[in-house]
């Protein structure tokens, strides 16, 4: 897996969801063009600090081959989940990762990411407006071993590491769950689905 490309894709999709779903006021996002596609990225320092910590941890887990899923969870102030966007990580085997890149100029990757953002926007348009006071958090799905190691490493002590509920526990507490396959960026091993909690 091309780690810089995959982390960039995670960052773009995360910003896109926060903007489109209105978790923060639109004014804190700045419009940029990436791969000839307009996207909105946060210019709000406290949010950017949190996002940088999340992505730094995700990058390290990718390097260790221990990141299974990157989940963006939208919830009420009382911590009731409303929507969940799960980016499943499919990493190449070490032997395949050493092969020459099939897309050296990332042209196919750019096209896939552009198409993914377009499809994501189209799928999110019909969703009902979120209630006020919604927040978000990111869950990094990893192994128990990686969780223990990260919790003990000094360089990650400033970033909170808590063990989250399992998807089964969350679904049992939340009632009906609607699954919606959204996008895939196969070139960097990302597949995405949304879960809407009713």
UniProtKB/TrEMBL annotation:
UniProt lineage: Eukaryota, Metazoa, Ecdysozoa, Arthropoda, Hexapoda
Short name of one Pfam family: HORMA
Protein name, as recorded: GL22309
GO cellular component annotations of the record: zeta DNA polymerase complex
HORMA domain: residues covered: 1-196
UniProt cross-references to InterPro entries, sorted A to Z: HORMA_dom, HORMA_dom_sf, Mad2-like
UniProt xrefs under Gene3D superfamilies: HORMA domain (3.30.900.10)
